[in-house]
Design brief:
The chain is of the alpha+beta class and 237 residues long. The protein contains eight helices and ten strands. The strands form three sheets. The chain has a four-stranded antiparallel sheet. A hairpin with a 2-residue loop joins strand 9 and strand 10 (206-209). Helix 3 packs antiparallel against helix 4 and helix 5 packs across helix 6 (184-196). The longest helix has 27 residues, at 113-139. The chain is globular and about 55 Å long. The two termini are 23 Å apart.
């Protein structure tokens, strides 16, 4: 999944050396937190499948979720030669996690500038998306904030070529609230309003944005990873 994410930024690149950087594989049957400074700082965590988010605990024990990660994402990307993990990470139940050895990865990237550039470009786009979302959450009303988060979820899954309209919801309403700075009750009410107005549909643990193109145009919304063909064109140009 990670290779599907970064391949558009270097279409002819051989990414197979990354396989030699994997030192461990976790299959999680429950939510699992990796806390900064607790002995896990020498690895990079890649989602083979599943979902994760990074978070910090603010004063008053309030949790702030900074970003979220879908299949193939590197959850704690920083310069590989550094040894600090800046955020706590929570991997959701039923996730598969690949642990990459930071030193091995640094050596691989030092020998292959194109591969290093592709990984860097992917993470630059993620940082740009986070920056835009933070600005939106500060300036927009609650309903638009939630719309932005749902569009970002669509974008995150689109990074691996996911084209289905129905997307899994791996965040609880409390976690969405911690992301947008609201309460789970307010998130529930806002989701109900959007559903009542026909903007979203929900069934089981999935959702669908009914008027995706119109919603992107109205906010306006920039796609950083979705759709995959669009990124291939960017990489080729």
């Amino acid at each position: 999944m990670m290779l599907r994410r970064v391949a558009p930024f270097a279409p002819d690149q051989d990414f197979s050396p990354l396989e030699n950087c994997v030192r461990d594989r976790w299959l999680l049957d429950r939510d699992h937190a990796v806390l900064a400074g607790c002995g896990y700082d020498d690895g990079l965590y890649v989602l083979g499948d599943g979902f994760a988010f990074d978070f910090s605990i603010l004063s008053g024990r309030t949790r702030h979720i900074f970003d979220f990660y879908g299949p193939g994402a590197i959850c704690n990307w920083i310069r590989p030669e550094r040894e600090d993990t800046p955020e706590n990470i929570l991997f959701k139940a039923r996730s598969e996690v690949l642990v990459l050895d930071r030193a091995r990865l640094a050596a691989v990237l030092a020998d292959d500038a194109m591969m290093a550039a592709a990984l860097h470009e992917h993470e630059v786009r993620r940082a740009m998306r986070v920056s835009r979302r933070v600005r939106a959450l500060i300036s927009l009303p609650a309903r638009d904030s939630l719309r932005i988060v749902l569009l970002d979820l669509q974008d995150e899954y689109g990074a691996t070529g996911h084209t289905r309209n129905w997307l899994p919801v791996r965040l609880t309403q409390e976690e969405i609230g911690d992301l947008i700075g609201s309460t789970s009750v307010h998130v529930s009410r806002t989701m109900a309003h959007l559903e009542r107005d026909g903007e979203i549909e929900r069934r089981a643990n999935t959702f669908r944005l009914s008027e995706l193109v119109a919603l992107r145009a109205r906010l306006p919304y920039r796609r950083f990873f979705d759709p995959l063909p669009e990124l291939c064109a960017v990489a080729a140009g």
